[in-house]
Amino acid sequence: MVYVWLSVLCSVLVSVLLKLARRFGIDIGQAVAWNYAVASVLTTLMLRPSLAPLQQSGVPWLALVGLGVLLPTIFLALGASVRHAGIVRSDAAQRLSLLISLLAAFVLFGEKLDALKAAGCVLGLLAMAGMVWRAERGAATNVLLADGMPRWSYPLLVFVGFGVIDILLKRVAAAGLALGTSLQAMFALALLVAFAIEITRCLRGRARFTARSLAGGVLLGLLNFGNILFYLHAHRALPHDPALVFASMNLGAVVLGALVGLWLFRERLSRLNLAALGLALLAVALLTHGWEVAAH
């Protein structure tokens, strides 16, 4: 289980880095862009993928391109969510995004809906609603942020975005493309999109590339790739317990994210938010158990 906990730690440290980015003068957009450069290099060195399969027929290019666009943009949404809504809400929203892929499994892939999964879906949706709810004090104008977005919109973007990413990942996996090859293709496409966004910002005078943001991006890339690598090692170490790995990863990330957000950053949650956090843990547990029962 050590690989699971290392993966959880890397995942939560990504949120911590995003939370501290502005304090240390790190531009999140640039860090995200450099992150994919680091991830691409590490994929080459650690997984040694073959790019020959990308020249064959049947490559799911539509899903890969979709991932190339969504990965950096939703990463930016995660950064905004962590900054404006906090680590607790953001990590919970990211883990509850499995509801999106689960609903897609029922609608698109013909998976059967049993009582456990149905209960998990209902509790998960209630948890998501409770997590994004945040009573705003003061004038009504304070509800909107400087960019005109309401605070609750960022966790919702994370929830939907990571769910769609998971659906596209399943499409890529179903096409039979090797993991290393698909990761390299996704990271390369995401790198192009992320740098296109940042170069556009620089040309408009809204940002400039800095060594500090580069350093932040290198660290972000190491943590992001570490999360993926340790998760893969966990599945290899426990080949007969995929549900255990999946549940431990998601529940662990929610719990550790909540502890870090509440104790380290003093994030304030209402009683409704705390109840929703409990519902989120229960929802993930029910959904995971439902998948385990279905598998057997």
From TrEMBL:
<feature type="transmembrane region" description="Helical">
    <location>
        <begin position="58"/>
        <end position="80"/>
    </location>
</feature>
<feature type="transmembrane region" description="Helical">
    <location>
        <begin position="272"/>
        <end position="291"/>
    </location>
</feature>
<feature type="transmembrane region" description="Helical">
    <location>
        <begin position="244"/>
        <end position="265"/>
    </location>
</feature>
<feature type="transmembrane region" description="Helical">
    <location>
        <begin position="6"/>
        <end position="21"/>
    </location>
</feature>
<dbReference type="InterPro" id="IPR037185">
    <property type="entry name" value="EmrE-like"/>
</dbReference>
<keyword id="KW-0812">Transmembrane</keyword>
<feature type="transmembrane region" description="Helical">
    <location>
        <begin position="209"/>
        <end position="232"/>
    </location>
</feature>
<protein>
    <recommendedName>
        <fullName>EamA/RhaT family transporter</fullName>
    </recommendedName>
</protein>
<feature type="transmembrane region" description="Helical">
    <location>
        <begin position="115"/>
        <end position="132"/>
    </location>
</feature>
<feature type="transmembrane region" description="Helical">
    <location>
        <begin position="152"/>
        <end position="169"/>
    </location>
</feature>
<keyword id="KW-0472">Membrane</keyword>
<feature type="transmembrane region" description="Helical">
    <location>
        <begin position="92"/>
        <end position="109"/>
    </location>
</feature>
<feature type="transmembrane region" description="Helical">
    <location>
        <begin position="175"/>
        <end position="197"/>
    </location>
</feature>
<feature type="transmembrane region" description="Helical">
    <location>
        <begin position="33"/>
        <end position="52"/>
    </location>
</feature>
<keyword id="KW-1133">Transmembrane helix</keyword>
